[in-house]
Amino acid sequence: MTTRQRISVFTGSFFGIGFLPGMPGTWGSLAALPVIWLIYSFTGLIGLSICTLLFCLLSWWSTPGFEEIYGDDPGPLVMDEAAGQALCFLLLFAFWQPDLSWPLWVAGFLLFRFFDIVKILGTDALQNIGGSAGVLLDDLLAGFYAHLVTGFLILIVF
């Protein structure tokens, strides 16, 4: 394995989280939550925007090296889940301005995982693009859908 591939695997796995057993996408999404919370709590929307962009760039950059080792869109590649989860909360805070209550975080997390796993409303088509674009874009769309449904819940529940 080359140095670039090692760095790609470390980065793309969200610094090793994607190699936890069982459900790597869920672990990657869950690991992103405290990072998203801390960044938003201390830096607001600007910091969360930068974090989301950074997750996207790291996913885009790490995918080719990761796929050289593990094949197309392997399970341990979870930086794309972190990017999608971050987009969900970025859009929630930008458009709905909710408080930081724990039910909001649970709803956003669960809805993101639902849309990421079920692959409905075009997410499956984006995933089929392949390469960095396919790996990342389906998770960003899942994050967008999760934001919409969580936003609706904010209107009626929170």
Structure commentary:
- The protein is mainly alpha-helical and 158 residues long.
- It has helices at residues 3-12, 24-70, 79-95, 102-118, 123-127, 131-156.
- The chain is globular, with a radius of gyration of 15 Å.
Total domains: 1
Question: Into which percent range does the helicity of residues fall?
Answer: over 70%
Unreliable stretches covering 5 or more consecutive residues? none
Mean pLDDT: 94
- Counting DSSP E segments of at least 2 residues, the number of strands comes to 0
Q: Which class do the helix and strand fractions yield?
A: mainly alpha
Secondary-structure element order, as H and E? HHHHHH
Major sheet: size, sense and barrel closure?
none
As a whole number of angstroms, the C-alpha radius of gyration is 15 Å
What is the count of DSSP helices, taking H or I runs of 4+ residues?
Answer: 6
The fraction of residues assigned to DSSP E strands is under 5%
* Euclidean distance between termini CA atoms: 49 Å
Shape: globular
